[in-house]
Amino acid sequence: MKNILLTILSIVAGFGISYFSINAYLKTYGLDEVKSESKAIKNKSTLDFTSRDIQKSFKSWDSYSKKNIDLMSTFKALDENGEKISKGAFLNLLRIGSYLPKKNVDKGEVFYQLVPLKNTSEIKIKKSIKSLANNANHYFRMEGKRLPTYDFVDLNGVSYNKEDTKGKLLVLKCWFITCKVCVEEFPELNKLVDKYKDEKVAFVSLAFDEKEKLINFLKTKTFKYPTIPMQKKYMSKKLKVKQYPTHVIVDTNGVIIKMVNNVRTLSSELDRILGKVN
């Protein structure tokens, strides 16, 4: 009996030493952190919301998506198993209408993960997701392309062309007078102009409307972007703009970095690009 107890104690002690030795090894080479981080990301994917609740009604989905989802922003894409995939593949899978995107944040990084859409979900949810994904995919495909040739003249007669904006980050706002949302974001856009006044950033707005209409309208609204009239054709045919407002960020070499549709995302993307995130 005594020998059996000694044998059991020996086995337990052996497991204990092995366990602590393995953990010490992992810690020494930083592998424990990789394991913990991987586990944390997978755990987080179930914390933010349950797919069942968010699919109960279109109202639930609409409320969630407006607060959390912006497919035009910068994010890391994950498939339904939590494995990283390209943003292009992620958007194309959403366009099929079989998934909804779920947002997770880990160590300051934003992750969107695919969640299977239940057959019992309202058809409006599927249509909404497909519409968001189609628009985001269209703008995503514009990234990396050169900004079409331009030679703008603003309301004050100031010229803006490739040479005038050379060496500057160019930010274009696409809008028109009767677009309510376009006008509502003026105050936030003015703050961006002030924020980056010491940076090499050129803010320019392209509008549908005729010069005189714009001059009269802007007498009633404070807008710090230089404004170019009569640009509907350039926006729709050259820039392929699908919704208004649209903001286009162009690098110093004339290549489109980002196309987004709201000032909140524009602001966060400028912070990211110019390195001003705290």
Outline:
The chain contains eleven helices and eleven strands. The protein is α/β, with parallel strands linked by helices. The strands form three sheets. A five-stranded mixed sheet has the order 9-8-7-10-11. The protein has a four-stranded mixed sheet with strand order 2-1-4-3, with helices on both faces. The chain has a two-stranded antiparallel ribbon with strand order 5-6.
Structure description:
A hairpin with a 5-residue loop joins strand 10 and strand 11. Helix 5 packs antiparallel against helix 6. This protein has 2 domains: 48-140, no CATH class; 151-274, Glutaredoxin, CATH 3.40.30.10. It has 11 helices and 11 strands. The strands form 3 sheets. The chain has a 5-stranded mixed sheet. A 4-stranded mixed sheet has the order 2-1-4-3, sandwiched between helices. The termini are far apart. The chain is an alpha/beta fold.
Write the layout of secondary structure elements.
Layout: H1 2-28, H2 31-44, H3 51-54, H4 58-68, E1 76-78, E2 84-85, H5 87-96, E3 99-106, E4 109-116, H6 123-140, E5 151-153, E6 159-161, E7 169-175, H7 180-184, H8 186-195, E8 201-207, H9 211-218, E9 227-228, H10 232-238, E10 246-250, E11 256-260, H11 263-274
Parallel strand pairs: 1-4, 7-8, 8-9
Antiparallel strand pairs: 1-2, 3-4, 5-6, 7-10, 10-11
Helix pairs in contact: 5-6
Comma- or semicolon-separated keywords:
single chain; 278 residues; Glutaredoxin; four-stranded mixed β-sheet; 45% helix; globular; disordered N terminus
